Amino acid sequence: MSWGFLRDLLSGVNKYSTGIGRIWIAIVFIFRLLVYVVAAENVWKYEHDEFECNTKQPGCENVCFDHFFPVSQIRLWALQLITVSTPSLLVVFHVAYRENREKRHKQKLYRSTGKIDGGLLCTYLISLILKTGFEIVFLVLFYKLYNGFEVPRLVQCDMRPCPNAVDCYISKPTEKMIFLYFLVATSGVCIVLNVSELSYLIFKYSIKCYMKTSSKKQHSSKSDCH
């Protein structure tokens, strides 16, 4: 598939992101998307063809492969990339809504349609929460499906129609495990960045609201004195 749409999406979101958000985009684009397209995809390219069991029983190999790989790791990684990037569309849509609203009213309604404040701030925070949630869900999914981020060299299968317990061999297990660890590490970094950005924005605008409230109180007390 073509990943151009995801690249364009990340490029569009980059204009409205904070400094931490731009680091997140860089990591997703360079260390996740490019690694997936350039290297990881080839590692799992023939995973079914290279999965071998020491039996010629028809159907046994397919059943065993489906049991140990209910979802292909590389397809799950692709789904994760798409899912964690999708919440950023909320920000793009909100900015487009602001721009369309200004055109419809034919006047300037915002200081900057891309400035993170008001409703756009809420949308941005929601997108961060969703991205963090999706990252955690996929990490748990990888852990449950692949036995704690492990890719064994040999697995034993005794499922029907296999005649008995047969040995099955996974191709390139070390290479696959390295990429799996890389995936987990980059997901962990992205979670830390999302939580940091969320905390930063909440703290920043809490201080801003507090300063504004204090300023109003001081102005009100001076007016009462006069």
TrEMBL record:
Superkingdom of source: Eukaryota
Pfam families reported in the protein's UniProt record: Connexin (PF00029)
The Connexin N-terminal domain, residue ranges: 42-75
Cleavable signal peptide: none
Subcellular location: Cell junction, Gap junction; Cell membrane
Domain Connexin cysteine-rich: 134-201
Keywords, in A-Z order: Cell junction, Cell membrane, Gap junction, Membrane, Transmembrane, Transmembrane helix
InterPro entries cross-referenced by the UniProt entry: Connexin, Connexin_CCC, Connexin_CS, Connexin_N, Connexin_N_sf
Membrane topology reported for the UniProt record: Multi-pass membrane protein
GO biological process, one term: cell-cell signaling
Keyword Membrane: yes
Task performed by this protein: One gap junction consists of a cluster of closely packed pairs of transmembrane channels, the connexons, through which materials of low MW diffuse from one cell to a neighboring cell.
Oligomeric form and interacting partners: A connexon is composed of a hexamer of connexins.
Annotated family: Belongs to the connexin family.
PANTHER family listed in its UniProt record: CONNEXIN (PTHR11984), GAP JUNCTION BETA-7 PROTEIN (PTHR11984:SF26)
Name this polypeptide is given: Gap junction protein
Species the sequence originates in: Tinamus guttatus (White-throated tinamou)
